[in-house]
Amino acid sequence: MASASVLVSLPIHKHFMVPWNDMRRGDCCGRFESTTDGYYCKKCDFFVHKISGDGVSEYIQHPSHSLHTLQLLLSKPRHYCNLCGKKIVGLCYRCEICDFDVDLCCANNPPPPEVIDISETHPHKLTLLKEPREFACDAECGKQVWSRVFLQM
């Protein structure tokens, strides 16, 4: 269902799009979003969630890959996001030099930092481990936990 007849040009798609309100999977990310606002291309039946369409640029600097600029591209088959591990459907930001891909969700919502410094409560910097592992909680609960954790390095 169209919410307006205004044509919008977005770097995420080659044709003009119209603001649209529809409960459908986004062609931008292959996922359903809790909000249904977005942009729709009538020429090729292409729907983009508002969060993916607004503020999207052809190139970005991302904190998870600060060495190079990432470019907005159509994902290659069988590619996965280097941050969340989910299969990328549609568009992603990519560094061709490093073969590094970030889906639009992770590009819009960067993951937590890999190193944190909370000197008020801990005397050393803590590093986030890439892979989940089991550990005993050092806080007051003492439970066994399976998670990504920050460890003193």
UniProtKB/TrEMBL annotation:
Domain DC1: 63-107
TM stretches of this protein: none
One Pfam family recorded for the sequence: C1_2
Keywords: Repeat
InterPro entries registered for this protein in UniProt: C1-like_sf (IPR046349), DC1 (IPR004146)
Superkingdom as given in the UniProt entry: Eukaryota
Family matches, as PANTHER family: CYSTEINE_HISTIDINE-RICH C1 DOMAIN FAMILY PROTEIN, PHORBOL-ESTER/DAG-TYPE DOMAIN-CONTAINING PROTEIN
Protein's UniProt name: DC1 domain-containing protein
Originating organism: Microthlaspi erraticum
Organism lineage: Eukaryota, Viridiplantae, Streptophyta, Embryophyta, Tracheophyta
